[in-house]
Design brief:
This protein has about 210 residues and is an alpha/beta fold. The protein is about 50% helix and about 20% strand. It has a single domain, classed as 3-Layer(aba) Sandwich (Rossmann fold), CATH 3.40.50. The protein has helices at about 15-25, 30-45, 50-60, 90-100, 100-115, 125-130, 145-155, 160-175, 195-205; strands spanning about 1-5, 30, 65-70, 70-75, 80, 120-125, 135-140, 185. Belongs to the cytidylate kinase family. Type 1 subfamily.
Length: about 210
Amino acid sequence: MIVTIDGVAASGKSSVASGVARALGIPYVSSGFLYRAATLLALEAGLPPSDPAPLLALLRGRPLRLEPLAGGNRVWQGERDLTPGLHSSRVDAGVSAVARLPEVRAWVDEELRALPEPFVAEGRDMGTNVFPHADAKFYLTASPRVRAERRAQERGEDAGTVEAALIERDRRDAAQSAPAPDARVIDTGPLTLEGVIGAVLAALPARTA
């Protein structure tokens, strides 16, 4: 059983996926953690985001391990936990360029498809590309202002600056962020986190729920 939750940046995908997974008693998987980990390593190594060859060599030379825990995902490189550095502003600014590289996307897809079912998978193209035959698909959206206010509150940043960055991020991610034709679209703007989780659970097929 696979449930996919896609959506635009800062639409609440990780929090919703975690809540749905806990309700179902299964892990949740965040593709974004792998893209962010690849971006962090590229930044640390001074690699250009437009050249996938050295980055893939780095990723395959010292493989990453995605750990889908009930309370959240973690990414490891050997004994090093990369997770604390994955949501910095510099990673936010660079992750779109890395995620657009077809070679990096193929690497992430390969890592995700190797994970044992069942799970809830969240990201940009889980329902369209990675798991097109998922049992249930959802797509989360909200206005840039709503998403900016949420993220600014979480990180203590200026909402206007965050909103401008999200609008640009939406533009860069447009090709990877389209909902699957058979996905249920949920506007998270007027809903609480619990409300979104409840909407997803209520829409699950009987055999999945």
